[in-house]
User: Fold these one by one.
Assistant:
Number 1:
Amino acid sequence: MEKYVYTFGAGRAEGNGAMKDVLGGKGAGLAEMTNAGLPVPPGFTIATSACRLYFENGNQLPDNVVADYEKALARLEDAVGQKLGDPQKTLLVSVRSGAKFSMPGMMDTVLNLGMNDRVAEAFAERTGNARWAYDSYRRFIQMFGNVVLEIPKEEFEHLFDGQKKKRRVKLDTDLTADDLQDVIAGYKKLVKKKTGKDFPQEPREQLAMAVQAVFRSWYNPRAKTYRRMNKISDDLGTAVNVQAMVFGNMGETSGTGVGFTRNPATGASEFYGEFLMNAQGEDVVAGVRTPIPIDELEGINPEAYRQLREITTRLEQHYRDVQDFEFTIQEGRLYMLQTRAGKRTAPAPVKIAVDMVNEGLISPTEALQRVEPEQLNQLLHRVLDESKPLQVLAKGLPASPGAAVGHIVFTAEDAVVKGKTEPVILVRAETVPDDIHAMDVAAGILTSRGGMTSHAAVVTRGMGKCCVAGCGDAEVDDRKKQLRIGSTVLKEGDWLTLDGSTGRVIAGKANTLEPDPTSGDFASFMQWADEHRELGVRANADIPRDALVARKFGAEGIGLCRTEHMFFAQDRLPHVQRMIMACKDTRRSEDVKADLAKEKDPEKRKEFQKELKEVVSYEKERRAALAKLLPMQRKDFFGLFKAMDGLPVTIRTLDPPLHEFLPKREELMVQIATMEAKNQKGAKLSQARKLLQVVEGLHEFNPMLGLRGCRLGIMYPEITEMQARAIFEAACDCKKQGIDAKPEIMIPLVGEVKELELQKAILNQVAADVFARKGVQVDCLIGTMIELPAAALSAAEIAREAEFFSFGTNDLTQTTFGLSRDDCGKIINVYVAQKIWPADPFAVLDPKRVGRLLKLGTKEGRETRPDLKVGICGEHGGDPASIEVCAEAGLNYVSCSPYRVPIARLAAAQAALRRQAAKEPEKARAYSTA
C-alpha cells in the first residue's frame, strides 16, 4: 500500500533529503535536519501524491489518507505530551505547503492552528502572558480566514489598522491584550458576515479544512503564474507539512528570522539574513515590519546566534550549496524550521559556484549544474551611468541588483496594463504574492517596508528584476497615487530610477550603461562551460554593433544575418520600393527570347517582341534600383566581416514577402482619398496610385506561404545576384585588408532541391566574376534553411547541393503545426492552459514533432553528405529546453540573440553533462545529489 504520510521528530525521520519528489523541498529538508540531530520541532508531512489524489478525487482527500494523517497526529501528540484542543496541555501546529521546487510566497500557510476561545483564555492564564495568547489567536483567525475561508486579507488588515489608529499607536506590539481581544471580536464578526457561519472552534475540523486549503493553493492564480514563468509542471503537486508550533512572539526573549549561508544578492561568503524579536515568521517575509540584520542577534542572544552559525555552516557543508533557512527562538531556545537551496540573483550563484570550487567543496562540473541558464540573463542587465549627477532621494535595501528606469505605477493592475507599452516601476508599501503578474512586467520594484528576505526581495531575485526594499523614508499613498520622500512628492507617471545594487532611489530618468560580464568569476565559470559543451554557439546579428556584442559574450560566429533588416533604413527604402514596383507578374526575358527564336509566324513574333520589350524594361528598372542598393549592402557585409574577423558569418538572402516593404493598402487608400478630396494633383498623387496598384498586385491571402524566400530569387534572379555580388565583393575587400572574412550564404524556404540548384548557380557565377575582377578568392559555404516539413523530408536530396543546413524553427514550427505565429496568441494561451500543449511551441521547441523533423533532417542529410554542418537559427536557439533537443539531434551549433549567448553556452554545457551522466550512472547520481 502506498505511503502518504511521513513523520519526523526526536532525531528520527521516516524520510530524507533526497525525497523531494515525495516530501517536497520543505518536507525533505525537515527530514534531513531531523536525521542530522538538529533542533527541529516534530511533525509530519502529507506527500505530494496525496495532493494529486485530492484533485483526482474531486477536491476531497480519500478516507485512507485522512486516517493516515490522523494516526500521525496522534503520534505527534504523544511525542510532545500535548493535544489539539486541550486547554491545559495544548498542541498548536503550523500547516505549510512545500512543493518539490521552491515557490516562495506562492502557496499558503496557516500558523497557530488549534487556537480557539478556550485555548486562548487558558494560555493567557497559564503563561501569565495574555498579550502573546491573544496575539497568537488573532493571527490564526486572520490566516485561517484568508487562506481557508477565502476572505480578502485586506479586510482583516483594515480592522487591525483601525484598532491601532483608535489606540493611537504605530507598532503592532504596542497593542495590549485587551486591544487584541477587541480585534478578535471584530475578526469573528467579519467571518460570520462573509461566511454565514461562526469561526470554527473544533481544532480537528480546523486541521482538515487547512490541509485541503493548502492543497487547493497549488492552483491559485499566483502559483500557476509562477509555475508558468519558471517552467514547473502542474502535475507535481505540493506536500503539506504539519509541525508543532514554536513561538517567536512570546516576548523580547523570543524572535524569528530567515537567512542565507551566503549573500544571495552578491554571492559573498558572509552570514546573511534578518530577524524580528517578539514576532512570527510571516512578519519577516511579508514585509509588514522592517526587520533587523541578523548580525545584531549576537548582541541580543549570543548563545542562540552561536548555535545558529554552527548549524547553518554544517547545513551548507552537508548540502554543498548555499542554504536558505528559517528559525524561531522561543524564550531563548533556538529551533530550525526550514532549510533549502537558496534562491539567488545571477552574480550570486556564479560567484558562489566558483568560490565553492576554489574552496574544494564541489567540482567545476558540479558548479555548472548549480546555475540555471536563465539566471545569467541578469548579469547582462544595465547599470547606472555614474559619470553624471544623480538626484538621490533616499536609500533602501539593495534587495535585487541592476538598474531600472521607468514611470511610477502604484497598483498591480496599472503595472500590467502600462507595462505592455512603457517601462514601469511598481511602487508599493509592500508587495503580496498576488502581485506576481505586475512584478513580471515591471522594470523594477520599490517597497517602503520589508527587508532583504521579504516577498518582494525573494521573488525579484528569482526573476532577475531590480528591487529596492524597505525604503523607510518613502511614504506610499496608494489611494492618492503618490510617493512622498522628504519634501519631494512624485505622482503616477513620473520617472523614477532604482539602483538595486546599492539601494538608491533616484529622481527622474537616469542614464544606464551596458555591463561587462566578461571577467572575474563569470569568465572562469563560462570557461568551464566551454570546456564541457559539445554544441557551438553563434548569434543572430544584422549589424556590426550587434555582432561585436555577440563576440564579447562568446559567440563563435553569426548563425543568421537577416539581410531584409538592412533594407528598412530610411536611405534604402525608396530604392527597395522602386525595385518592387518593377516586380510585375511577367515571364523571364530568357523564356520570352526562347519562344521568339522558335516562332515563325510574323504576327506572333510581334507579340513576343512586344512582351520582350516590356519584360526587359522591368528588368532594367529592377537592376537600376538594385544597383543603388549594392554599395550599401557591400558596406553592411564588410562591417559584419570586420566585426567577426576569423569567424563564420551566415547571411540569409532576402526572405520576407515584398509587401512588407510597402505602405499598408488601407493607409494608401486614405492618403489618396485625402489628396483627391483636397483636389491635390501632380506627381505625389500619381505615385501613390501606382504604389496602391503594386500593393494590390502583391496581395496574398497567406503571404508567409506565398512569394518569399528562394521563390523571390527564382522569380527575380537579379535580387539574389545583387546580394551575392555585395557579399563576395565585401569579402574580397576584407581579404585585401587582412581581415579574415568567412561568408556562408543561406538560401531560405527551400522545399525542393531544384530550387537550391538554381540559386546556387547564380551564386557560383557571381563569385567567379567577382574573384576574377578582384584578383583574390575567398572560401564560401552555400547552404539552406530547413524551415518546411518538405525540406526536412527531402533532406537527403537537398544535401547533394547544400554544404550546411540551418533549421529555421520559427517557420518550421508554423508549418508543422499549421499555425500562423502572428495570429495564434489566443489559441496558444488556451491550449497551454488546457494542457493540450505543454508550452508555447514558438517559445519552447516541440520535441515530438518539430524535434523529430530536426533529427530526421540531420540524419538523412548526413547520410548524403557526412561532413554536413547543421545548426539552428530560430528563436529557440537561446532557450535551454530547446537546446537540449538540439543536442539530442546531433546539431553542430545553435544561434540566438547576442544577449542570450552566455545562456546558450551554459545550457549546451549542461546538456552535454547530462548526456555523459546518462552513460555513466555514478556520475548521474552525483549530479542528482548536487
Note: Residues 924-930 have pLDDT under 50 and may be disordered.
Number 2:
Amino acid sequence: MSPIRYCRPAGSRTSGDDGAVADDDGYALLDAGDGRRLERFGSRVVVRPAPSVAEVPRRADSVAWAAADLRFDRDRGWIGEREPWTITLNGVSVELRSTEAGQVGVFPEHVLAWPWLRDRLATRPGAEVLHLFAHTGATTLALAAADARVTHVDASRPAVAWARRNAELSGLADRPIRWIVDDALAYTRREARRDRRYAGFVLDPPTFGHGPAGTRWDLRDELPDLLAACAAVAEPDAFVLFTAHATALTPDDLATALETAFGIPDDLEAGDLELEASSGAVLPLGVAARMIRR
C-alpha cells in the first residue's frame, strides 16, 4: 500500500499523494524530535512543541535549531520577533501571528489535501462546500480559489475575523464565502431544517473544547452526531475531508464513523496525518479520512 504523506494509509484504503508541501516557498518542516518541531514559515524559522516526537531524537544539527527567529516555550511563552508576518501557500496568502497557545494561525499539513479538494471541484464550479471548525480560513480560501461557494463556520469570532483578513490578503474577499460565527453542530442542524444541501464538507474539529452554553466537547463522543448532521445536508455524490489531531482516534475509527453516517462509499481512504521533514524526520499529527459518496 503506497503512503500518502498527509495521510499515511491504514487498513485497505489506498492513495498516491506525495509527501511535500508545494507552497510557493511559504513553508517547510526542517526537523522534528526531542518534543520539538523546527519549521520555516516564509522568512522566519520557528521552533514549537511537538509532543508526538518526544521520544524521537532530532536529526538536524544544533546550529540549525539555534538559528530560529522565534521559539515557543510552554513556561516562558514566545521568545523572539513577534510582529505578524505573511506567507503564501499554494497561492493563498495568510497572516501569521504568535498566539498565546503556541500556534501561528495555519496548519501546514492541511495544504497537502488541497490538490484532492481541487480535483473534486474541477468539474463542479460553484459547488457549495461546508467548512466546519474552519479556523483562520486557509482551506476556505483554497476552496474559494477553486470556484467553490464556501460556508466558513467557526465558533471563535476572532478566528473568523482573522480568516476575513486572510481573504483580503489573498485577493479573494469578493468570492462567495459566507462567514459564520456559530457552533458547528448546531449550525449544520439548522441548515437541515432550512433544507440546504452541500456538495462537499471539510472538517477539522478539536479533540476537546466547549460547546454551546459551556458544555464540554469531546470529539469521540460528538463524532457520530456531527457526521450524521453533515450527512443530512449532503448531496448524493458529496465529498468529505476530515482531519483530527486527536491521538485517541484511529484511522479505522474515522472510516467506520464516515461509513455509518454516509453509507458505504465507492471511494474511502483513511490514515495517519503526518508531515515529513527535509531532515527525513516524520512528525505525526493525528488522523485523516477522505471519501466520495456515490
Note: The two ends are 24 Å apart (CA to CA).
Number 3:
Amino acid sequence: MHSAEVIVVGGGPAGSAAATRLRAAGIDVLVLDKEEFPRQKLCAGWITPEVVRDLQLDIPAYPHGFLSFRRLHWHIRGLHLPVPCVQHSIRRFEFDAWLLERSGAAVVRHTVRDIARDGEYYVLDDAFRCRYLVGAAGTSCPVRRVLFEPSTPRARGLQTATLELEFPHEWRDADCHLWFFEHGLPGYSWYVPKASGWLNVGVGGMATRLKQRGENIRQHWQHLSAKMLRDFRISIPSEPKGYSYYVRGPVPGRIGNAFLTGDSAGLATRDLCEGIGPAIRSGERAANSIMTGAAYDLHDVTGGSLGGGILTRWMDWAFTRGVSRAAPEVKDLASKSA
C-alpha cells in the first residue's frame, strides 16, 4: 500500500495549487488522477489577473501559448459594450500539465472508486493511505461523492449545462466576445481566441432554467453556430462536447481531515461561472489548513468575476431566476457600473 501524509485526488488547478503549497512546506503529498497529463480539458480557458497574481505567474517565462485581451465585448439585449480591461486566455491542455509539473508532487494515474476510514486515516481502493485527503477532481469528484454527498447534496438549481469546442483557427478578431441572454438563454455564449491560432467557442446556461423553458443547451449551440458563420465567417468544424458544473452555493468544505476544492465544492462565480480562480484559491486554502491547523474558510474564495458590484448582482439574479420584466434595465446597469 502506498502511503502519504496528504493525497490530492485530481491534478487540475485546484489540486496543483494545493500540492504546490504542500510540497513547498516539505509535506509528503501524492496526486492521483484518472488521466495522463497533458490531457484534453473542456474549458474556455479564460484567466483573470487575480489568477496570474495568485500563481505568481511570470507571463514572459510561461512556456506555452498565452494571449492577453485589452477589451471584452459585452453583448446584452442588443446593447454592445466594449470594455477596456486586461484578461488572458490559455489552453487547459497545456496549462494544467504545466501547473502539475511545477508543483513537484508525485503523480500516479489512478481512478479512485472507494474511500474508507481507518481510524485517523483514509484508505483509497485498498491501495493508498493518507492522513489528509483533498478532493480536487471536479464535479464528479469521488471524495465528494463518498464523503460529502450523503449529508450535503448539491443544489440542483445551481447546475450549469455547457457545450463548447476548441479548434485551430486563424482568427482575425483578437478580443473576447460574450453574448448574454440571447434567445432567452439563462447564461451566455462566448468567443475566446487563444495564442498560436486556437479558438474556443461555447455556450452555457443554468440547467434548471433551461428545463423550465422546455429547452436544451444544444438549441442554443445552434444559435451560436449560426452567429459564428454570419458575423465572423467561421464555420464550426465539428460537434461540440458537453460538461456540467455548479456555481457557488452552500459549501461543505471540510469533514474531518477531508477537504473539497474547486468544482468539487461547487465554487464557480455566480456572475460569469468562472472556476479557475476559485479553484486555485481553495486549493491553497486547503493546503494552508493542513499545514497550520487554521480553519478551512471558503466564504471569500468565490467573489464575483465582475468585482461584486451591481452588474454582478444582476447577472446572478438573471442566471438563477431568469430574465423577466422585473429585472433592472441593462442600460441603467451599464451606467451604474461604469
Note: DSSP finds ten helices and 16 strands in the chain.
